[in-house]
Design a protein that fits this description.
Length: about 375
């Protein structure tokens, strides 16, 4: 079976040498030396200042939501994302207010967001998503954030290594989160990170992810915390994969270019501007109808090739969001029904890719 993605597995001997290191020093979790090393290396690689590793991307979102004190309030977010963006808000007692996306970028439409902020005063913040690693309208959101005094938390789960005008996307907004799940571009098997603009939130977060224990104050507990720590074995995987990133990115770029050149222009979603250095994370296609999308999905499945409906459904339709409080999101709903992500991962063979391209070329109704 050809999956839509496949975790990158680094050289096993390299991984074993890190495991030997863990055995030698007997430190397996609780901010161990490999976690500290990976934090430094990632901050350096990504070009960010305050980076904190955590157990997964969902916990990164939850911790960020706690730090911003959004509980019991309403927060603007995108209906077009992986479910965790919304479920983390609801889990933390926040009411998501869905605002529709821009059909060209599939990201939260800043003009619509501005309209909401102009007409209501009960919005505590915004959680936009850099979907597929394509950047949001950061400058516009920056202005709205200052004008309306609403903090911005970016879900940057797909934006590993992406820069805009030579600046990491992670340096926009108050906090950004990353996911290092095995299915993502860069991974630690399970894992994630928070990136902070201000050092003070970063210091608070360090305590929050460790039960609220303040090591600097002799282990006092002053705030409510949770366990969101990353272990040493996960960090070991992360160190190995990080070393291989240049190689992984080059390979993905080749595969992505091939899809890009051979697929009909009309069904392609990703449009990268000149100011962006992108990460070749996904190849989504947008078919004219849901029926046509399913036809292609089924045809691929009959050849043992799986594709995924990233992202479906539009999140304002989830059973646990508040239908009364929400605006309708016709654009997100419409795109979510017709979108399909094709397999894209390090090691995908050209032979299989040609088969996929052949099916798309013959089945897509233009
Ligand atoms: C994967 C993902 C998450 C959740 O990350 P996990 O590490 O799987 O918990 C959150 N948001 C988006 C947009 C994602 O794609």
């Amino acid at each position: 079976m050809i999956n839509v993605t496949q975790p990158y597995l680094p050289d096993i001997d390299k991984y074993k040498s890190y495991i030997d290191e863990i055995y030698a020093n007997g430190w397996v979790t609780n901010n161990g030396p490999l976690v500290q090393k990976l934090e430094r290396k990632l901050a350096d690689y990504l070009g960010v200042k305050h980076l904190l590793l955590v157990a997964n991307g969902t916990l990164a979102l939850q911790v960020a939501i706690r730090l911003l004190q959004w509980r019991g309030q309403k927060v603007i977010t995108s209906p077009y994302s992986f479910v965790a963006t919304t479920s983390a808000l609801v889990w933390e007692g926040v009411e998501p207010i869905f605002v529709d996306i821009d059909p060209l970028t599939c990201n939260l439409n800043p003009v619509q967001v501005e309209k909401v902020l102009q007409t209501r005063t009960d919005i505590a913040g915004a959680l936009p998503v850099h979907v597929y690693g394509m950047h949001c309208a950061m400058e516009h959101f920056d202005r709205l954030s200052q004008q309306y005094k609403v903090p911005i938390l970016y879900d940057a789960a797909h934006a590993f290594g992406v820069t805009y005008q030579d600046e990491s996307l992670l340096n926009f907004g108050d906090i950004s989160i990353l996911s290092f799940h095995a299915t993502k571009l860069y991974h630690t098997i399970e894992g994630g990170a928070l990136v902070f603009k201000d050092e003070s939130l970063y210091q608070q977060a360090k305590q929050l992810i460790n039960f609220g224990i303040d090591d600097k104050a002799g282990g006092d507990i002053k705030t409510l915390g949770i366990n969101a720590k990353l272990s040493e074995v996960h960090a070991a995987m992360g160190l190995c994969v990080l070393e291989d990133m240049p190689h992984i990115l080059l390979e993905r770029q080749k595969l992505w270019q091939r899809y890009h050149e051979k697929s009909p222009e009309a069904i392609q979603i990703i449009k990268i501007d000149n100011a962006t250095q992108w990460n070749y994370s996904y190849f989504p296609i947008l078919l004219p109808t849901e029926g046509n999308m399913k036809q292609i999905m089924n045809k691929l499945a009959s050849e043992n090739i799986s594709s995924r409906r990233y992202f479906y459904p539009s999140l304002e339709t989830l059973p646990y969001t508040n239908p009364d409080g929400n605006l309708t999101c016709p654009i997100a709903k419409n795109i979510a029904k017709r979108v399909l992500c094709l397999p894209l991962y390090y090691g995908l063979s050209q032979h299989i890719q040609d088969k996929i391209i052949g099916i798309v070329q013959s089945e897509a109704k233009l």
